[in-house]
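Supplementary Methods. Inverse-folding protocol.

Structures were first reduced to a discrete structure-token string of length 88. This string, shown here, constituted the complete conditioning input.
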């Protein structure tokens, strides 16, 4: 099996999803920048905002590398007021 594919399988097995509430009212461009910055963070596998609730973001992370508190710290490093809502 290709190494990249193997890594993806490992990441998916260890993946955890949490919902994060962002207090700030972000525009489309700002939300895109947040998602891009989070997805570049080692340990975060994916991030996406809820289409109907712009203040909620679903973050998927590798529990072997990151904790939910680390995810929250990623938002704080982006200077966003964020709160963990809970796991999916």
């Amino acid at each position: 099996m290709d190494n990249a594919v193997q890594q993806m399988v490992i990441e998916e097995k260890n993946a955890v999803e949490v919902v994060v509430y962002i207090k700030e009212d972000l525009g489309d461009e700002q939300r895109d920048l947040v998602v891009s910055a989070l997805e570049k963070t080692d340990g975060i596998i994916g991030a996406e905002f809820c289409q109907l609730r712009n203040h909620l973001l679903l973050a998927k992370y590798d529990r072997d590398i990151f904790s939910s508190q680390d995810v929250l710290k990623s938002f704080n490093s982006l200077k966003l007021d964020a709160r963990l809502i809970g796991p999916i």
